[in-house]
Amino acid sequence: MDERDELLPHTASIMTGANAVVLMLEFVDALTYYGISQGFKNFMQDRLGYSQVGASSTRSTWTAFCDVVPLLSAYVADEHLGRFRTVALSGIWYCGGILLLALAAHPFVLTHHVDAANIAFLVAIFVGIGVGNGGFDSNLIALGADQFATSDDAAQEAFFSYFYLSINVGSTFSYGYLAYLCVDGMGDVVPAAYGYFATFLFCAVALVFAIAVFISQSHRHRAPITAFVKTPPAQRAFTHTAAYFMSSAHGLTSICLGLGCFCSALVLNFAAVFVTDMATTWVLSCTAGGLICVGGGLWLCKATDATAVDAACAGLHPQAARDLVQVLQILPLGVFLIVWNAVYDQLDANFQSITQQCDLRWFPSAGRDAAQVPGAMLGVFDTLGVALWIPVLDRLVYPWLRRRCAVSSMDKVAAGLFLSSAAMLWVAFVERWRRAAAPIDLGDGGGPVLDAGSHQPMNAVSWTITIPGYLAIALCECLVYIPAYEIFYSQVPVHLKSSAQALNSFMSALGDTLASVVTLLFAAVITDDLNDGHLEYMFAALGGIAAVNAVGFVLVMRQPTSLLLGVAFVDYLTYASVNMGFKNFAQGRLGYSQAGASSLRSSWTAFCDVVPLAAAYVADEFVGRFRVLLFSGAWELGGIALLTVAVHPVVAQGTAHALFLVALFTGIAVGNGGFDANLLAFGADQCGGEPAGFFSHYYMSVNAASTLAHGYLAFVCVDGVAGLIPPTYGYVATYALCGAAMLAVVILFRARAARLWPQLHRSHSAPLVAAAGASIGIGVSLWLSVAWFTKAALPMTTVSDAFHVLRILPFASFLVTWQAVYDQMDANFQSITQQCDVRWRREAGRDAPQVPGAMLGAVDTIGVILWVPLLDHCIFPWLDRRLPGGLRATHKMAAGLFLSSATMLWVGGVEVYRRAAGPLDLGDGLGPVLDAGTHQPLNNVSWLVCVPGYLLMALCESLVNVTAYDLFYSHVPAHLKSSAQALNSFMLAMGDILASLCTLLFAPVITDDLNDGHLEYLFFALAVAAAINAAGFCYVMHTMAF
């Protein structure tokens, strides 16, 4: 029995007794904290004279300080005073701090002693409120959860939801009413000048009342039902654990070094608030950000290293070893919460700034003097959203999901982290939309209408456009914070539960610090009047960082195959980034012709698909798949580094050309080939006897990577990033990003190896994969002939390794023509797109921003992401129930091959239609409008005509490639599975070579300016070849009864 179970006098109820007092106190704490937070920026800017950046940075630092103090209060509670007394003393201190804040906000003090008011303000928020609130954060939630028996998991989980609900009910009151009171006062009772004073005084009175009620429950004999169960402190509970980590004998000094980096980052960021020199502030904050990254890396590497954990536990008492493992298990989760908290911090730091420069008038028809919605009040949509989402999730969504699959706390956190990335990107879009709308000018000579709080011009777009951002963040909070409360409470020993909650708050502090660092990094584009800056750059950057954080969380915290899917994602991100920029770089920087660039690209992709044969040989016969994958990642990383040098603008063209070819063929192709041969088989090995789901997830991962490459990096390659990366450095930035991602996954892959994957035994059977014939045609013919020799003699029950391999050769032969068709998507689809009208807004004329031609590849990858689940969960089950004998893999393959022929006909027709439209001439005497990438004329037809071709090709891929993964894995012996996947890649290489040959055969009609040629001839020829290939496939597979 848990030691606190003996103290429970009754069955705890969530909404009555001691728990009700805890929830009430948390409600008042939230009301107080957010009552201060919602008016923080406006008070500093309007009353104390801070700048936009200074106010945002100070606020982030204050919230960071509030989240660091819980470490000290956890030490006091777990070792000395216990949780109840620590909360009571913190509350009394809290009251003193908020009374001092109210004094600093009094109009008399602000008018006559503004410097003293500023000092009192800083002392109140840091020394008073920061310390008092910190005592609550680490102990109050643990005190409430202590009131339940350890076996009552359902009640504890419900308590955490109610606890977070109490926070949001309190903050709703702050945002919904106190936001008004701060700015407008309350009629004749509270003049507007006394708004902040009245708000802070009200919070102080409420807190004094709540603390009095809390302390009154101190003695059980006074109120046996409402008295608290007080878990006694444990001697040296906190310090003993810390000392153990610090002891070099246990090999956990990296954990202490990481903590030292975190603490140093907080100190540096705190110092940056009080430094007046902007350059020094920038250096301090950037150093703090770097230390956070180093500390997070140390924690992730050490806490996930099973070998290090086992060594640390050696010789310990079993209970001590269990305690140590429990503490180590929550550290990686804490690291991933840092970025999440940096995202969440934007709710008060910069969401509010956007809102305050929208049209906040309740009734715009009332003109300049219309009543306004206080910008801070929009925070109420976050808190109301939480109050709405919690019951929806707990009563509807989670039960529905649990009936279909297991839903863990980690699953909820992962969903919240991914959603936070989408929320940041949405807010970036909203800011662009807001700024595009001009400031409100009523034409009365009074200039733009100003916000009553910040006195900045409001733009002609309603404040309601910011509501979805608040609601999205509210959903993220419910998915991240509530499960985090549960994990940090239930996964640690009872004597360290306050310390674990303090660690949660500490991660929040680091997130606030990171938010402050990000704000300072983007200070140049965050102006007091947002119309003069580009605040959306910061939100877009946070969206990308949050996406990487979410992916990292899944890779580290979930099942082994998640990390492998992440490796596949990064590998294909690199491959697709090189592939989509290949032709433009070769033509624009190296001087290749259209046909020459296409042929070189096809040769490179063919080489990438041949290398897996060698990689499979090494893996299956010598060192195993894991070691080949690790080496391939390191080798590909070197290739990316060399490619980054090659595309740098200062490198001479001749040198760049040589480095470019070496990096592509010797570096990236070899590394990518090692992945292609082994990663799919290695992942399927982890799935036991049911790898089919992994194949679908694998293909979705590579297409998600391709979506990112074509959807965003295609822009970066050509246009750079406005204000950050010049266009000439676009390729450098793209490949540097890929290199950083590859470095991260190689480190994670190596760090997780010992825990996740035992080393697979090597086979000493020679791979039975025949070499290709003297030519593709002869080779395919010879392999197809196998069908007639094996159709009767080799039934599926044959156990010979050779016969298993021979049976898949005819199937593999038909992939050659398919790959030649698929290769056109990057080789010549892109060329057609780049000579359509790729302008985003035609009315903007010649200088309108353009859609990079390579970006259309994102339509293909998004199509795959949509098609795969639609096929797996809807279409395939429906067909399987209706077809005699069920739906077979060869049926899917045949459908994909026939559809590929139709796709080629469609694309050929699009090219005829495009060329007939004629070049786009605006009549301004400057000639046709040119594509920004190839500098060829755009024709007068929208790029949207190319979209159906990409979507059709995506459907073909989903039917052919995923099926091929399955067949090449399931139809060969276990010790030849890497070789079989290499055979798949080898046939794709033959297809790439065939595509290159086709391009060269039709070179006379493939001109640099497609308007002078007939590219459609190539597509029509491929359509005929694809149709013959599909018919042959059906005949041979039927003959073989495959």
Automatic annotation (TrEMBL):
Zinc among keywords: no
Q: Which SUPFAM superfamilies match?
A: MFS general substrate transporter (SSF103473)
Q: Which residues cross the membrane?
A: 12-36, 91-110, 116-136, 157-181, 193-215, 255-276, 282-301, 324-343, 371-392, 413-429, 460-482, 503-525, 537-556, 563-582, 602-619, 628-651, 657-681, 702-725, 731-749, 769-790, 802-822, 986-1006, 1018-1037
Subcellular location per UniProt equals:
Membrane
InterPro entries (UniProt xref):
MFS_trans_sf (IPR036259), POT_fam (IPR000109)
How does the entry describe its membrane topology? Multi-pass membrane protein
> What keyword terms does UniProt attach to this protein?
Membrane, Transmembrane, Transmembrane helix
Alphabetically, the GO molecular function entries are:
transmembrane transporter activity
Keyword Membrane in the entry? The reply is yes
What Gene Ontology cellular component terms go with this record? Answer: membrane
Q: Cross-referenced PANTHER family, in alphabetical order? A: OLIGOPEPTIDE TRANSPORTER-RELATED
Q: Which family does it belong to?
A: Belongs to the major facilitator superfamily. Proton-dependent oligopeptide transporter (POT/PTR) (TC 2.A.17) family.
The name of this protein is Proton-dependent Oligopeptide Transporter (POT) Family
Query: Whose protein is this, by species?
Result: Achlya hypogyna (Oomycete)
